[in-house]
Design a protein that fits this description.
This protein is of the alpha/beta class. The protein folds into 4 domains: 2-78, Gyrase A, domain 2, CATH 3.30.1360; 106-151 and 236-347, Rossmann fold (3-Layer(aba) Sandwich), CATH 3.40.50.620; 152-235 and 352-401, HUPs (Rossmann fold); 411-520, Isoleucyl-tRNA Synthetase, Domain 1. The chain has helices spanning 2-13, 35-43, 47-58, 80-93, 122-140, 156-174, 188-201, 210-231, 242-245, 249-258, 294-307, 324-334, 371-378, 380-387, 411-429, 446-456, 458-467, 472-491, 500-520; strands spanning 31-33, 64-70, 73-78, 106-110, 144-151, 238-241, 262-264, 270-272, 283-286, 312-318, 342-347, 350-354, 357-358, 396-399. It has a 5-stranded parallel β-sheet, sandwiched between helices. Helix 2 packs across helix 3, helix 13 (371-378) crosses helix 14 (380-387) and helix 15 (411-429) crosses helix 19 (500-520).
């Protein structure tokens, strides 16, 4: 819709492109352009005078019912005829509304990538929902996106997991008098793993190879993580093992050395000269004994990524990884790739309340709130929506008890209720939305025009939400659309009136926009409540 209007104006004025915005005040119209300000310099006229001339030149009843000039801006009010044509097109497309068939960039999207040493916590959940919504939005827009989870299964944390399970199993076999090390993973999930380990290894666990036990425990945790993500509707195309990549470290080091990226110090540590590529200082990539650091694993992984030839690479990391961005980009440049193809998005932590008090941590996790326990309490659809109501890089705090409210204070309920009301209406009418596509939308009152326009804005919102990597634009759109839908429903009697078919068609368009918008957030719209 917006693109069509912009193209018409550009053709009429003989320019390449016209910027359109949606005025905050609906009385100014549906769209507005500041083009008069750009033309003022060349035409040597006041912007308002140019805007007045353009408003007369652009009036076209096929598209607009009114064109006006205010403060140098040209404002456009769309005609019923044009809105109806757009509504018919949207209803015919159904769940393909706003979609494109291919043609977009190929993208490798990595997200979550939590260490497989414990259950996913609520901070991981935010990154998980953020990444999954971008995946859905991008694919709807025709981008070829592969989703990937990087499994940090090398290094001390996995060894520590194995030792933690070993000591817990040892205690259950030999008595609780065993002295536990201070550094260990805690929580009932370790006891659960220890019990499973005894079933797997028997009493031989007391002499089991620590590497075997660590690898087994890591695999158990990874299956748990996959199960939690699956219950939340998140499925990855690929899991990549960090440990499996280390065989390439020697070859990667040689490539970095050839490109002048590495140097050794007096202690035999190997450093990445990342400060030459924009980092605030150089970074160690190999310790005195030659063992690669955590950064080395990231370097190998990103070399593996870029070698696969995607157009763009998106990482979603926790906010605590902010400092890693310049060092990884530096390594990418040294490896001979374009670091501008890497886009790193940060996800902030979450503070949970319950009835106004901090949400209590479970004994199962030990020291954090798990994604699983909150998802079971609130439902994953509700959790998704709430987590996507704010920018991912800003702090989020909410009270899980609010998700039980059945009013506008609970956005998940409120949006779903708007969809369910429309479904109930059609059920009472004994009709389906497709039955009313040919019904003309004319003589529309302002509230009807506003609802149709808002529902049609979904296509533009989908595009902008992905472009800005901002799914909160979509949740905001859906909530505002629900507000207008509930008001229209309350103010206009539908069944048994002369306006039944017209009003039902308008509401069916709103239902489509809500249903599709929710689906692209990974949420199933409710038909009954």
């Amino acid at each position: 819709m917006k693109k069509q209007i912009s193209r018409f104006i550009a053709d009429r004025l003989g320019v390449d492109d016209v910027s359109l915005t949606t005025p905050k005040d609906p009385s100014f119209g549906h769209f507005s352009t500041p083009i008069a300000f750009a033309l003022a310099k060349t035409e040597r006229k006041a912007p308002n005078a140019i805007a007045l001339e353009l408003s007369q030149k652009l009036l076209n009843d096929e598209f607009f019912s009114e064109v006006s000039a205010i403060g140098g801006y040209v404002n456009f009010t769309l005609s019923d005829r044009f809105l109806d044509a757009c509504a018919i097109d949207a209803l015919k497309q159904g769940d393909r509304f706003g979609a494109k068939s291919g043609g977009g960039e190929s993208i490798l999207l990595e997200f979550v990538s939590a260490n497989p040493t414990g259950p996913l916590h609520i901070g991981h959940a935010r990154g998980a929902f953020y990444g999954d919504s971008l995946l859905r939005l991008g694919r709807h827009l025709g981008y070829s996106i592969a989703s990937e989870y990087y499994v940090n299964d090398a290094g001390n944390q996995v060894e520590l997991l194995g030792r933690s399970v070993y000591y817990k199993a040892h205690a259950s076999l030999c008595g609780d008098e065993i002295a536990f090390p201070n550094e260990r993973y805690q929580g009932e999930y370790i006891a659960d793993l220890a019990a499973k380990a005894r079933e797997r290894f028997g009493d031989a666990i007391l002499s089991a190879d620590s590497a075997d036990l660590s690898a087994w425990a890591k695999d158990q945790m990874l299956e748990w993580i996959k199960k939690t993500l699956g219950e939340a509707g998140i499925v990855f195309d690929r899991f990549v093992s960090e440990k499996s990549l280390y065989d390439r470290w020697s070859a990667t080091m040689e490539r970095l050395k050839r490109n002048g990226a590495l140097y050794a110090d007096d202690d035999n540590k190997i450093w990445l000269a990342s400060s030459k590529k924009g980092d605030d200082k150089d970074r160690v990539v190999a310790r005195e004994n030659g063992a690669p650091t955590y950064l080395a694993g990231d370097i190998i992984y990103h070399e593996d990524k870029f070698a696969r030839g995607f157009d763009r690479y998106i990482n979603i990391w926790g906010a605590d990884h902010h400092g890693y961005i310049p060092r990884v980009k530096a390594a990418i440049e040294y490896l001979g790739y374009d670091s501008n193809k890497l886009e790193t998005l940060l996800s902030q932590m979450v503070s949970l309340l319950k009835n106004g008090e901090p949400y209590k941590m479970s004994k199962r996790s030990g020291n954090f709130v798990t994604m699983e326990e909150v998802g079971e309490e609130t439902g994953y659809d509700a959790l998704r929506f709430i987590f996507l109501t704010k920018r991912a890089d800003t702090h989020l705090e909410f009270d899980v008890s609010s998700l039980k409210n059945e009013d506008s204070s609970n956005p998940v309920y409120y949006v779903n209720y708007a969809h369910a009301r429309i479904c109930s209406l059609f059920e009472k009418m004994g009709k389906k939305p497709n039955d009313l596509i040919a019904t003309p939308l004319d003589r529309l009152k302002p509230d009807a025009t506003e609802l149709v326009f808002s529902a049609l804005q979904l296509a533009e919102t989908i595009k902008e939400s992905f472009k800005a990597r901002a799914p909160h634009l979509l949740t905001d759109h859906l909530y505002k659309l629900a507000v207008k839908t509930h008001k229209f429903y309350a103010d206009n009697r539908v069944i048994g009136t002369n306006d039944e078919a017209r009003f039902a068609k308008i509401l069916s368009l709103s239902a489509l926009s809500i249903r599709l918008g929710l689906r692209l957030l990974g949420i199933s719209a409710k038909t009954r409540m």
